[in-house]
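Question: Hello, beginner here. Any chance you could explain the protein record under this note? Any guidance would be welcome.
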Amino acid sequence: MKLLKFTMLSLFFLVTYTFQSQNIGDFTSIDPNTVQSASFVLSSSHTFQKIAEVGDALTAGGTFKPKPDFTAYVPIANSSTNGYLSINSEGSALTDGGGGVMVFDINFNATTELWETTASEDLDFTAVGGTAANCSGAVTPWGTVITCEEGTIPDTFPPFDGYNDLGWNIEINPATKSVVAKHYAMGNFAHENVAIQTINAIPTSRTVVYQGADSNPGYLYKYVATNFQDLSMGLLYVFKGSKNGTGSWILLDNTTQSEQNSTLTQSGASGHDATVFAGIEDVEIGPDGMVYFAVKGEGTVYRFSDSDPLETSASTVTMETFVGGGASYDINDGTSTTLVAWGNGNDNLAFDCDGNLWVFQDSGNSFIWVVKNGHTQASPDVEIFGKVPIGSEPTGITFTPDYKYLFMSIQHPDPGNAANQVDAAGNTVDFDKGTSLVIALSENLGSALSVEDENFDDGFTFYPNPIKSSKNLIIKGNQINNIKLYAISGKKLLDVDYNDLNEVTLNLKDIQSGLYLFKVNDKAASKLVIK
């Protein structure tokens, strides 16, 4: 017995050390030939938990809006377990009841190892004339959120203030559940995202923003704020030069209301004839200091260095293709290697703690790509983390400060989907409506339920656990009508009906070793370890 305890204790520390040495970007690619289905397919080492889906009630009134997009985790005091989740709605109040931003107060429960919501509210944008088509955005270094309007319309609706009604960046404060301002000086165009950089300069620090127009023609912009951490005033520049070579920034007229309404016109052929991109989706500043941006219509993620972010008239922009651009990449799923075309549709971007670039694909195969740190086109290193359900696109992406948790949304899935997937909390998710969720390594999310606990809720028991695949699993309780077994990724492996039995014997000889979840009568749930 003492030897057994020592062996189990040693195994515990070995497994714990192994888990702690892993980061969220450590995984084996999914099979790229996986047929898109109603399910959310992700690497077997990871799991997800639903935060909310379209139609769910908000605590402050109303319901979760359609087309969830940018899913911004804003930490409280830099906490990775306590913060605000700001979720954009890319819809419109005029067409589908969407638009705007919902803010959730969330925290990680260390006992259940699950995320919990304590409050949720739909923000009121009346003070800035309303908002719509809220696509992606950014968390600012000072703890607010920029929500971007992906579309432009002239001054058509009240308050008829002379500014275009749509096509701006809007700053919100998730802590106070308030709207700070529409930032007209940042230009008017179909905004998708912004990347914010703080420059420590003498005599004062400055704030620089890189952003792009999600249109075709679209353009790349730089905004240098006049005051530190204040985006209400500044100089706006557009890029002109080579997409694989050098270029420079051109100052736009951006003082009057008319000038701020005409950003695209000034940038185009009748103005400065700036470099055209076929829809700039997301812009991110990498850990190497370079700026990365996704162009959906060109199927390319570019990156560039800016020789002096504040010295615009003399700074040199040196640009290159980072990933995509018609290239294909070898993807190894642990069994075989497949050459996979990058394709079009690269959209949202984010870097993890290891410097890997996560790239969400809108259209095509709807993959979640991960471009590994050190990748170049000459020496590629690309993996595929997941594939979203039929009809949907993966949207928004932020990490907690410790990079253990990834927040995102799945937008506009097919309403006919019936995935019947079980998340880390034991909830059944069909992915038939927009869903916001959190992803982590399986051991970091919903793993607190002891595998030695043989008692279900509702009076059911099972044994043994852990179990060898050569043995039978015994489940006891009153009126057993159905048993389902799921992989930790949510894939359903068994679904067996019974007729009010008090004891069931399951043979698991065809199930591989690993961590699983099974449910009785679609209510009682538990983790199961198969050796």
